[in-house]
Amino acid sequence: MTTRLTATSLLSRTLRRGATSRIPPRPFAPLGLDSSAGAPRSQSRPSYSTASGDPGQEPPPGMDSPIKVVSHLGNGGGAGSGEGGGAAIDAGKSARRPLSLWPGMYHSPVTNALWEARSSIFERMMDAGNAADATDAGEQRAPTELLVKTPAQSRTSIVYKFATDDILREQYRDPWNEVRIGKLLEDLDALAGTIAVKHCSDEDSTTRPLLVVTASVDKMELKKPIRVDTDLKIAGAVTYVGRSSIDIQIEVTQVDQDGDNQSDPFALTANFTFVARDSKTGKSAPVNRLSPETEREKQLFSEREARDKMRKRKREEQKGGLANGIHKLRAEAERLNALLAEGRVFSDLPALADRDSILLKDSRLENSLVCQPQQRNLHGRIFGGFLMHRAFELAFSTAYAFVGQRPCFLEVDHVDFLKPVDVGDFLRFKSCVLYTQLDNPEQPLVNVEVVAHVTRPELRKSEISNTFHFTFTVCSDLLKKGLKIRNVVPSTEEEARRILERMEAEGLCN
């Protein structure tokens, strides 16, 4: 008993001594460092590397900022690291950081590395604000003095060393030895957010840090399967900015297995739109201007500017035009009746219904979850990439059950993030096969809709947070063996309207 009490007393004294000891603040670590998910703790200051390899200097602002990934215990210099030099970041810094700034530890090593880089900007700005308060210099000003930045200043990349890092490869491998698309969607959102924060930051930390949230994702098309046995790289930069919006293009590249660099290395291209808000008031905030330099950057800027103007023009057109509205309603009513004709046969004369068709409601799947703190982003909301991840996996399962064979992912259509999701929210994902396109017998398409509902049972309230649309096909070899995909028909007017809306968005109702 005496020995046990002595040991307990010693442990208590040790814990009290550790709790009262002060740890000096961590120096700012700019983007481009080795962000480690599991590196050993040490108290050494990380070193930087430039293009010439000279340690101790920050990379020039115009350089691509590669972020290293370490997926296993080690010194960060072995397999699994991304491009760029420099020693591993001191993992002990996590003990000095508020809990709200390290949710990435619950995600993949890539997401963790990206969030480490992003949070370093916030820490630097918040430290500068605290220092200003301590010297009676007043709090940081609102970001009204805008800078002009180039796309090169926000360009950031990260490399997956799948060829040499067994642990990283296993985390991303699906049952068919390809990359899990859902996890990749998380990383794309994390990279885009890191780039947005980098563009919004200033040079001397005199303005308050802006909060950036995902507003929408444009259509992402998978150009070729992404293998899990070959290194993969994702890179992106800002392509266009509005008053408070930031457009970012992300490119996923993977060289062919035979090493042929002449073939198209792009596996996927995605465009994200973020909106900036003042971290103190929560209101919309202006962002730094963009000055494209290269011909490619100027072309992307023009394309995104034209898209932005067209979107605004469509919103204006929807507000007016009574005659056009009446004509559109009549045409829509005719299409609704045509879509519902087969569904009425299923309801009224089921024995005579087309055996090659199925009711939309019979393709539904659903899952639900309570959002946990480990799924939040740096701002305390549920990570947008996590929502895309869960929606994709439900859509994949829905297509799998519908086709009867493993589906092949092709694209995710435009996604609007309508309502933020908070920790503790009861989230329900509901999916269905919305319609199929069977005109091309060599590549039939299965369009799956997933709707995310934020449900609050205490208030008897449910709201739509996001609507996702995924497109799948099947392997051509299975089609040659006689595999057939059934047609989907609606049984209610609401289902028919949803189908028409998606067909119009895809340009299939002309």
Automatic annotation (TrEMBL):
Superkingdom, natural source: Eukaryota
SUPFAM superfamilies: Thioesterase/thiol ester dehydrase-isomerase
A Gene Ontology biological process term: acyl-CoA metabolic process
Keyword Transcription regulation included in the entry's annotation: no
Ranges annotated as biased composition (Polar residues): 41-52
One function term, GO molecular function aspect: fatty acyl-CoA hydrolase activity
InterPro entries per UniProt: HOTDOG_ACOT, HotDog_dom_sf, Thioestr_dom
The entry's keywords: Hydrolase, Repeat, Transit peptide
Domain spans labelled HotDog ACOT-type: 158-280, 361-478
Keyword Repeat: yes
UniProt record similarity statement: Belongs to the acyl coenzyme A hydrolase family.
Protein's name in the database: HotDog ACOT-type domain-containing protein
Lineage: Eukaryota, Viridiplantae, Streptophyta, Embryophyta, Tracheophyta
